[in-house]
Amino acid sequence: MTTRKPSTRLIHTRGTRLDPPTVNPPLERASTVIFSDPEALYSRKPGYGRMGLGVHRELEAGLATLEGAEHVRLTMNGLSAAALAIGSVLDSGDHALVQDSIYGPTRRFCERRLKAMGISITRFPTRADAAALAAQIRPETKAIILESPGSLTFELPDTQMMVGLAAEHGLITILDNTWGAGLFHRPLALGVDISVQALTKYVVGHADSFGGAVMTRRADLAAKIEACSDDWGIALGPEEAYTALRGLRTLETRLARHQESGLALAEWLAARPEVARVIHPALPDHPDHALWERDFTGSCGLFGVVLNPVPEAKLNAMLSALELFGMGFSWGGYESLIIPCDAQLNRAFAPEPPFEGPLLRIHAGLEAVEDLEADLDQAFARLT
Ligand SMILES: *Cc1c(COP(=O)(O)O)cnc(C)c1O
Within 10 Å of residue 46's Cβ, how many Cβ atoms? Predict the structure, then answer.
């Protein structure tokens, strides 16, 4: 069974089926579960819809396969998954090291909510080396919080170095794996303790619902995550779980196309006079390309583009002229997206090397790549 390829295993995650069976599991829209005897009422699990029902169990099994996890906890979106993972392993008085380029709202959780819980943090530049990081570790340091590649700026932390450092100092490593989606990056196999995904992005894949997952191989951490999730009442609704499970079936097929189009667009953009530089970890000129080659088996459709300096009005005219690229937050769906990022870049450490002009983030969707290039080409005419 384990020798089967991911596409096969993600399609055959058979859980509960009707009799006679349907291809898909039945969707249980239920808060209340009915029991026939009082003993079962208090002993049988799941005893209540908040704990998840059949569709949730099948989604958990699929995600365990995807990430090589033993324990999966579902949450209502990616941000709650990151907050649950971080919040469940830290206590009042603890300290955590936080990668500067993690997803902005997760960083805000660390700065605002952890602080309110009596937990202190130190932000570190994504490319910090072992000596610089070790110098920040205190007796009360408990965790290193990572994301690979970092949001918007796409730097890669040296995850294997961080895992070694964590082992030496007894720290827990948590990594947001939304970009790699579990297919192109398997942090748990690299020794990371907890992997987090915003299922909202590639797993759901159609920009039509939210979901999050916290995954680990460690039973001790799974118990903490479960307790914290129960205490905070974190749960994923059945319809959202269903869309995530449906997305899993086609994840590998869709990502192959996102990867191909992302690379084609990145290379096309790199050759354009309007573009100062493309930031795509799979391109050989990316500063962390060697780390990407070591730790990843592929790349998704999301990458950065730095334009040559241009007046804001022309940049805005270019963005407004795009017909196929939607301007909006989130990514991972079938449609191509673009956003200007400068307004969101509120970092403790300046980008290295400094950006020549405005930073854009592009998500290559599933449209024909020739049409996407033609759309960018006509919009770029507004830049001159
Ligand atoms: C979008 C995103 C999240 C948050 O996911 P939501 O489902 O929108 O809450 C977390 N981490 C990363 C890296 C993301 O891109």
Answer: 14
Contact present, 211 and 60 (Cβ < 8 Å): no
Q: Whose CA is nearest to atom 3 of ligand 1?
A: 78
Residue identifier of the C-alpha nearest atom 6 of ligand 1 = 78
Q: Which residues contact 104 (CB under 8 A, 6 or more apart)?
A: 151, 344, 346
| Residue 226 and residue 97 in one domain | yes
Active site residue 294: no
257 contacts: CB under 8 Å, gap ≥ 6: 366
Based on its alpha-carbon atoms, the radius of gyration of the chain, rounded to whole angstroms, reads 21
How much is the pTM?
A: 0.97
Q: How many Å apart are CA 173 and CA 165, to the nearest integer?
A: 10
142 and 277 share one domain: no
Residue 1 lies in a domain: no
Closest ligand 1 atom number to CA of residue 212 = 7
CATH of the domain at 359: 3.90.1150.10
Ligand 1 atom nearest to 102, measured from its CA: 13
Distance, in Å, from the CA atom of 63 to the CA atom of 72, rounded to the nearest integer, reads 7
Do 199 and 300 belong to one domain?
Answer: no
Best of 178, 197, 361 to mutate for ligand 1, by most ligand atoms within 8 A of CB? 178
Is residue 201 flagged as an active site residue? Answer: yes
**Ligand 1 contact, 103 CB (< 6 A):** yes
Nearest CA to ligand 1 atom 10: 78
Can you give the residue range of the structural domain that contains 265? Answer: 251-383
The residue from 249, 284, 311 where one domain ends is 249
Does ligand 1 have an atom closer than 6 angstroms to the CB of 154?
A: no
Tell whether 28 is covered by a domain. Answer: yes
The answer as to whether 224 is a domain residue is yes
107 and 14 in a common domain: yes
The residue from 249, 277, 302 where one domain ends is 249
| Per-residue confidence in pLDDT tens, the chain, 384 aa | 558 988 899 999 888 788 899 999 999 999 999 999 999 999 998 899 999 999 999 999 999 999 999 999 999 999 999 999 999 999 999 999 999 999 999 999 999 999 999 999 999 999 999 999 999 999 999 999 999 999 999 999 999 999 999 999 999 999 999 999 999 999 999 999 999 999 999 999 999 999 999 999 999 999 999 999 999 999 999 999 999 999 999 999 999 999 999 999 999 999 999 999 999 999 999 999 999 999 999 999 999 999 999 999 999 999 999 999 999 999 999 999 999 999 889 899 998 889 999 999 999 999 999 999 999 999 999 998
